[in-house]
Write a structure and sequence with these properties.
- This protein has about 200 residues and is mainly beta.
- It contains 2 helices and 11 strands.
- The chain has an 8-stranded antiparallel beta barrel with strand order 1-4-5-7-8-9-10-11.
- It is elongated, with a radius of gyration of 21 Å.
């Protein structure tokens, strides 16, 4: 007899989730750093790519997921959390030649505007790095929403972009015998972000 109730109970649970999502409105979703990744990729000696990431990230997006409207998007990344899985290289990246983490412990991103292009959304925002602020464009979208086992509503996003590190004063390099550079100037960015809907303040 117990099995008879399983399907109706599952259906009710799914319906409750759908109903809650259908009542979506402008709300704040905070970044879950444990399920989010901020990666970068840059050319090394022209012949390969070096990939790294930041492990200390925070931020939020204020949006209406049903209407696909975004009011605000902000992020803070601690530069000392950079890692390329190579201790000597990471120490160099944290020094004055690159992120200069003692003087500039964080970089920030704040969206200024966005628009839709095909199936993607294009966000234009200001990235502040090494005390320099430049516009950066990110292209991506909302992967979907779902409830976790603890009743939290979660949203997933992906986005990609690129920047020229010299625009921010990150100029260190060495010239190879063939005239190429040790480190590329163009940096590719990939974001996989998971956010949790903020609970109402009591």
């Amino acid at each position: 007899m117990k099995k008879i109730w399983i399907v109706p109970l599952i259906a009710i649970a799914l319906l409750a989730t759908v109903v809650e999502m259908s009542r979506a409105e402008m709300a704040r979703y905070d970044v879950d750093p444990d399920h989010s990744t901020v990666e970068f990729r840059v050319a090394h000696m022209v012949i390969s790519k070096t990939t790294g990431r930041f492990t200390d990230i925070a931020g939020f997006i204020e949006m209406d997921p049903e209407a696909l409207k975004v009011k605000a998007l902000e992020a803070v990344i601690k530069t000392a959390s950079v890692t390329t899985s190579h201790a000597k290289r990471d120490t160099h990246l944290k020094g004055a030649d690159f992120f200069n983490v003692e003087k500039y412990p964080a970089m920030t991103y704040r969206m200024k505007s966005y628009h839709k292009e095909g199936e993607n959304y294009v966000a234009v925002g200001e990235l502040t790095l090494l005390g320099v602020t430049k516009e950066i464009t990110l292209v991506g979208g909302l992967n979907g929403l779902n409830k976790d086992p603890w009743g939290n509503l979660r949203a997933g996003f992906t986005a990609e972009g690129k920047l020229n590190r010299k625009d921010f004063g990150m100029n260190w390099n060495k010239v190879l015998d063939n005239g190429g550079l040790v480190v590329g100037e163009e940096v590719f960015i990939k974001l996989d972000i998971e956010c949790i809907k903020a609970k109402p303040k009591e």
